[in-house]
Each structure stands twice: as C-alpha cells, then as structure tokens.
Fold these 2 entries.
Entry 1:
Amino acid sequence: MPQIALHTVLDHGREADYEAVHETIPADVAAALADNGVRDWRIWRDGRHLFHLIDVADYHAMRDALRDHPANVRWQATVAPLHAKADDYSGEDDGIPLVWSLAEQRDRETESGVNPCP
C-alpha cells in the first residue's frame, strides 16, 4: 500500500492540546478514514513540528472524499485551530518527496542481479 509522508506545524503553545485530542480520535472519523482507504496513519511530534506517515490506497481520492464528509468537517473544526496553518483540502499536494528507501534499493539490486546487502 502506498505511503504518504506529511509535515505540518502546530501553533505556538498548542502541543499539549494536539496530543490530548489525538489520544483517541472520534470513532466516526476513524471509520471515515478506513472507509476511504486509510490502513494506518501515524503521527510523530518534534516540538511544534508534526510528521505524518499515512498508509492509504489513494491519497488524492481519500482527501476528495473527506473534504465534505460530516465527520471530517467536525474533526477539522477541532484540530484546525491547533495548527499554524489550517488544511483547507484545496491542494493537490503529494506529501513530502521520498529521498531514499532501503527496501526499494534492495529490490532494485535484486532485480538487476546485484547481490544486495545481507
């Protein structure tokens, strides 16, 4: 399943609030994500910087479906004020570009007949 990495930034002083609302997200939001191809969504925080890794069948289709989904609209009303810049779901972003992958390198080496690292 494709993975998309994202980087977002919290507004000053909102770190604890963000972590609190993410202890358990609402069941209808989790269901909407799953119904739209999200297998997993992990978030790491470094200060105000958030790094998301999303396992999703089709990132753009998921965003299109969630843009006006009632559960997501309510969820965005909760989390948007915590961010330095709210996500309006208008862009065609593709996330953070991948620089390197060990698995992809090993696959290329195997396909080309090069002995991959043991």
Entry 2:
Amino acid sequence: DKFKNSIGGLLSFNNFLSTSVNLNVSVQFAIRAAENSKVNAVLCQMTIDPKKSSVPFAYLKENSSYKYENEILFTMHTILCMMDVQHIQDQYWLVNLNLTSGNDQTLKILTDRFRK
C-alpha cells in the first residue's frame, strides 16, 4: 500500500545507483532478495530521456568487470518519479520510474519548501 500511495511522488537515492538494462540480471538479484521471507523484491523499470535529464549517469558495458550485466551507473542523489506500481506475485513488485529533469515541477516545489 505504501508503494501505491507513492505514485506521483519522488524517490531519491543518497548513494550511487547501479542498474542493468538486462532484465535477466535484475530478476536474478530479485530472486536472491526474495529468499528472505521478510523481504519484498522490487524490480524498478526506469525510463530515461538523456535529452531531458540533468542527472549524470554512465553506461558501463565496456568498462565493467561484469560486462554481461550491461550496467548503467547513476550518480549520488539521483531522483526519480514513481509512475506506477504493480504487484507481480508473492513477494515481487514492479515499480515504473522516470528519471527527473532539472525542471521537474514536483521537485521544484519540494526544493523550494526546503529552502524556506
């Protein structure tokens, strides 16, 4: 329910964020997480428009020790907008996220509140 109530809200990471364009890699991480019955595995599907984003990120395929992961690494303090949440089965959830742009209205309102 917390996920569903967060649709339209912002999600922030205060560390580097490692992702993969390879769905099989992501699913394997989720399966390992779900081995703990107290944990819900969350797969994040991200939409990234490099023309709109002001967030630095890098596609590391050729520069990674694990080339099969097709890793994209995002900088610290990456902020994403939660667009949709789906309960897939049992402990598995799918969250659709959009990378925010520098002129995202929700982010601007939040930033203005912090400054006051």
